[in-house]
Amino acid sequence: MLTRTIAPSLQTAAAPCKDARDLYFKLLHEADKENSRASAAEFLQRQIAACADAPSSIPETIEQLEDWIVHSSQAAGAEYQQYLNHRKQGAPRRYFSSKAHALYFLNRVAPTKMVDGSWLYGMVKHWEDPAFSELIDIYLEELGDGIEEQNHVAIYRKLLRTHGCERWQHLPPDYFTQGAIQLALATVADQYQPEVIGFNLAYEQLPLHLLITTTELDELNIDPFYFTLHITIDNALSGHAVKAVNAVRNIMSRYSDQQDFIRRLLNGARLSNQGLGTVQIINAFKLEEEVVRIFQEKAILGQHMHNNHCRIGGRNLQEWLSAPHQIPALLQALQDGGWIVRNQDPKTSRFWKLIDGSQGQMFGVFTPYEKQVVYDWIASDALEQLPRRERLGESWRVQKRQTIQQSLTPSPASNVIQLGRPEDKAQSQEQRLFHQQLDSINDKQARMRLLEAWMTPAMHDSPAGLAATRRFKAELVR
Asked: I need a labelling partner for 426 at 20 to 30 A (CA). Which of 72, 200, 344, 443 fits?
């Protein structure tokens, strides 16, 4: 089977994992190796020990679980209504100060979102056991039942691509802790079954921050579908939350020491809060610091791309860009020289004109996310007074309608054979390989094992992985 490469420079063959990011990519691409399983187990033990004393709201008796999820959902809903009332009375957004802030959040939580549902992958092998049917159903729904538009990872990847936030693979290791936990649970699920079930139980509850995030993303003209999808499918009456409780009931009876099962289940639930949390990541955003970081990154190549004639504050750009620590002074020099006029419409700044629009001399140097950061920083105190479309872009609803309409309109060149991109060829190769393998198998057991292999956290959102998911779901009911 082919292995898709997400971050080649971060992959390691047999070297020990140095941190959560290193482990994340190792488990994503090499989970079937013995040393990967050993690393996953050791990492989980460390994480369990680290949160052993953390409080848990989950009741310790199965009889109380259903009432608990309903009451938890009601409590989150009540707090959300309070939030909405405060907003109606004029309160500002609670989480996101600007669109740049929201996009920063989308990028920083990507390591977790891009392995959404992975903790349940290890349950798929139990497809013949009715006790695991609820967990397998949840995993399949996380995979969109093989439909790309419903596959959670595919949805999030598209969201990142839409806003130029795709570059998340080299974020600091702390951002990978939660994703590494989920991949580790998938890798050693047989040994950590109660922990997987407990993690799933906690993770499928409806948190207040999800409700607020969805509202504020929509307000900032960012399609919230990925987040609204989790609100609807995690509901306390018929969604993943209920299935998570049923899974506890179904599998707990298999354990002779049910007290030990509950202890381990609670450990798994605590794991769902390890790593940087949503609110923690949101609060880490500092607009000025992000502008400096972006310019420092651009300086690595930019110092070689300018001639000596462009001078700012008495120095040429090569000198300014030659050392990262000089970037704050450069930004101030740009303001002192009138290139950037803060607290006004960015269109009045000469620097903005250089990076915005196809005629700008620096067009394409900054990604859509980076441009949003620069725009919001220049506008600063005047940002909320600027026209909505100028500061937030075209409505995502309009863009979505246009995309759908374009997909339904035949292209004039639709009958012309084109070479296509390299990744398209790779996907076609994947699909051919998948169908060749599938067509060569008559035994259902072997066929299901093959399908499982294409439904891994690294593969399930590929065309072949989506096809495997659809076939797997169909095989379950035969």
From this structure: 443
